[in-house]
């Protein structure tokens, strides 16, 4: 038996850097340092764990849609231990929204061939947390999302979803789309050996024509949503800061009372 | 006036506050028609009517509890097809966003998630989003199909606006995908008796500075003196001092209360992402250089083990 896992990873601007918007109101991805979304490291980790725990012949492919630099994200995932990578890159993809992203991912996943898709819980830039559900809808396979624990056995994926009101045990037959949270287990660091090995691993590049997608279906022109205005949030006016010299708690109570919280 | 579908988040018929806020926003763009699914669905009608629902479409079936997400998408789609609304509004919970997204895809529409405000516009509703850890605000529109928009808790006031709230049974045929993901067991989260973190007017949080699970009783005591919810930073959660369901931040809950009190929390960008839109922010931290002080309306540089108990005592004595 073989098990084909596709891990979707996003290349995002560094959250600790100065993130901003470009003139066309899309995220500026040129002037900011980028990296593999930290939340997708958890997806890579769980895919590698599933591979290690399996008696099957497992192949882990990492897939990204993004500009040239997004290769860095693929490189990192390969050095963690993924087997091969697919980079979907096309100028017409600039400004694609969630609906469009899910189209491209679904087509690329189908072309790559899959039994299991593993995604992150949300990207660290768009933070929508909807792409895995959209990809499942498009592929017509079960959605087993937001798992803090996941395992695959005998063609079935199982996991635990810790929701607002309850913690649920979920189960679905493969093929399926899974997403994992940052509670699923620390992601490994690439070893020196892993980094060297990654240099020899195959990275395929596909464009829209490889996926039979028309330019009008994606990008800013194909988008289903439009950002009309962007404004930097005004800096909060500097507050009062006091040093505790024995009365700090009382002073704070006084402030809360003045604001009618007490 | 055009109708607006509002997806109801409820627990066995008890409507959760974010849904009532959604009704306030829905009335700005049309006449709210509520969709309530699952156990107790019909019991939601009175509350929904009080807050402006002209109609309440209800449906109950075991599928909603036994299978993940898709049965609810099927039902919301059925409601969409029977009403032909001008917009669909869904509370921004993890599940709400997934339901909304799949619906949008099915009906050929765009989706906007995590709106913090909604206004009527000439070309349809305009959603405000707070992005990049709340350092920017954007205004966006869905430009294809019927706008599907998810809205964060605490984005609008709950307003009484009595309407008919006529209950109608929704006819739902489940798709063949509805039973794809089975829920094999469910453990309900134990109630703490405190307000729901995302809905609370006041949130009191503790971070690494709290230095141990046992010390969280200091944070809880302050919270209880104010009738507040308790939050925690990821450092405190990862250390095992407080449950993950209470984590505030990018990978936890996003809160926007009237008052947020951060104790022993440095104010990392990922924590800020979940609390920066709070109206009033207060911090207690022994490091005067901690980034959290850049956000505060009032800050105390000091040891939380001195300041917090004194504050709690003072609040109790003032409240009598
Ligand atoms: C601040 C901001 C707000 C936005 N708001 C909206 C909006 O309201 N509506 C809308 O339609 N679009 C919106 N977008 C655009 C949207 O973020 C992108 O289209 C994005 O590719 C998909 O959404 P996400 O990053 O939020 O994904 P999420 O749903 O948060 O991502 C979940 C997972 O999907 C996978 N994934 C997502 N994108 C990629 C990718 N490019 N390559 C590989 N895997 C991927 C990853 O595994 C990721 O962990 C917004 C973008 C930004 C920066
Ligand atoms: C992808 C990603 C997602 C993340 N998501 C989240 C998230 O959702 N939520 C979150 O919180 N973090 C998140 N983080 C982690 C975040 O980067 C920080 O590591 C975390 O917020 C730090 O928590 P802290 O402020 O409690 O701890 P620290 O940064 O260690 O700060 C502790 C503070 O306590 C103060 N202190 C210590 N002792 C005392 C005392 N006795 N009295 C008063 N003050 C004292 C110190 O001066 C210090 O400022 C995420 C990180 C990543 C990479």
Automatic annotation (TrEMBL), chain B:
Keywords assigned: Electron transport, FAD, Flavoprotein, Transport
Example GO biological process: fatty acid beta-oxidation using acyl-CoA dehydrogenase
Entry's Gene Ontology molecular function annotations: electron transfer activity; flavin adenine dinucleotide binding
Subunit structure: Heterodimer of an alpha and a beta subunit.
Coiled-coil annotated residue ranges, if any: none
Name of this protein: Electron transfer flavoprotein subunit alpha
InterPro entries reported for this sequence: DHS-like_NAD/FAD-binding_dom (IPR029035), ETF_a/b_N (IPR014730), ETF_a/FixB (IPR001308), ETF_asu_C (IPR014731), ETF_asu_C_CS (IPR018206), Rossmann-like_a/b/a_fold (IPR014729)
């Amino acid at each position: 038996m073989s098990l084909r896992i596709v891990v979707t990873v996003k290349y995002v601007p560094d959250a600790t850097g100065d993130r901003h918007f470009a003139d066309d109101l899309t995220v500026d991805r040129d002037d900011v340092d980028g990296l593999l979304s930290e939340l997708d490291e958890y997806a890579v980790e769980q895919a590698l764990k599933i591979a290690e725990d399996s008696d099957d012949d497992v192949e882990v492919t990492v897939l990204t849609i993004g500009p040239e630099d997004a290769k860095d994200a693929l490189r990192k995932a390969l050095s963690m231990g993924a087997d091969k990578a697919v980079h979907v890159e096309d100028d017409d993809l600039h400004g694609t929204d969630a609906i469009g992203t899910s189209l491209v991912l679904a087509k690329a996943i189908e072309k790559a061939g899959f039994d299991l898709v593993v995604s992150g819980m949300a990207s660290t830039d768009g933070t929508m947390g909807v792409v895995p559900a959209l990809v499942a809808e498009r592929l017509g396979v079960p959605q087993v999302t937001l798992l803090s624990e996941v395992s695959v056995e005998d063609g079935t994926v199982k996991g635990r979803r810790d929701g607002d009101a309850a913690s649920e045990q979920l189960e679905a037959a493969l093929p399926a789309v899974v997403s994992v949270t940052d509670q699923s287990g620390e992601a490994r660091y690439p070893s020196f050996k892993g980094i060297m090995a990654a240099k020899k691993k195959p990275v395929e590049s596909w464009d829209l024509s490889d996926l039979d997608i028309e330019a009008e279906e994606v990008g800013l022109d194909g988008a289903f949503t439009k950002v009309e205005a962007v404004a930097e949030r005004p800096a909060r006016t500097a507050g009062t800061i006091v040093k505790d010299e024995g009365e700090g708690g009382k002073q704070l109570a006084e402030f809360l009372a003045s604001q009618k919280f007490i | 006036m055009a109708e607006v579908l509002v997806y109801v988040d409820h627990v066995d018929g008890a409507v959760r506050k974010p849904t009532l806020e959604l009704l306030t926003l829905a009335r700005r763009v049309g006449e709210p028609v509520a969709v309530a699914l699952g156990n107790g669905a019909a019991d939601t009608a009175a509350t929904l009517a009080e807050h402006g629902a002209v109609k309440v479409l209800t449906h109950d079936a075991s599928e909603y509890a036994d299978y993940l997400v898709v049965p609810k998408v099927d039902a919301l789609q059925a409601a969409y097809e029977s009403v032909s609304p001008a917009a669909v509004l869904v509370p921004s919970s993890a599940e709400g966003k997934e339901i909304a997204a799949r619906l949008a895809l099915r009906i050929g529409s765009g989706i906007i998630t995590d709106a913090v405000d909604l206004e009527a516009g000439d070309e349809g509703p305009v959603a405000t989003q707070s992005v990049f850890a709340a350092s920017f605000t954007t205004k966006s529109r869905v430009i294809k199909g019927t706008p599907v928009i998810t809205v964060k808790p605490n984005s609008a006031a709950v307003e009484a606006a009595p309407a008919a709230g006529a209950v109608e049974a929704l006819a739902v045929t489940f798709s063949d995908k509805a039973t794809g993901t089975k829920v094999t067991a469910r453990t309900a989260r134990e109630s703490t008796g405190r307000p729901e973190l995302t809905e609370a007017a006041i949130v009191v949080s503790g971070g690494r500075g709290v230095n141990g699970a046992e010390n969280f009783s200091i944070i809880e005591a302050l919270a209880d003196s104010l009738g507040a919810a308790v939050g925690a930073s990821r450092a405190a959660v990862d250390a095992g001092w407080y449950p993950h369901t209470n984590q505030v931040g990018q990978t936890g809950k996003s809160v926007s209360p009237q008052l947020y009190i951060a104790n022993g929390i440095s104010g990392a960008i990922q924590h800020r992402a979940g609390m920066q839109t709070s109206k009033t922010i207060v911090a207690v931290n022994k490091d005067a250089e901690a980034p959290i002080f850049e956000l505060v309306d009032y800050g105390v540089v000091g040891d939380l083990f001195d300041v917090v108990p004194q504050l709690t005592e003072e609040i109790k004595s003032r409240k009598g």
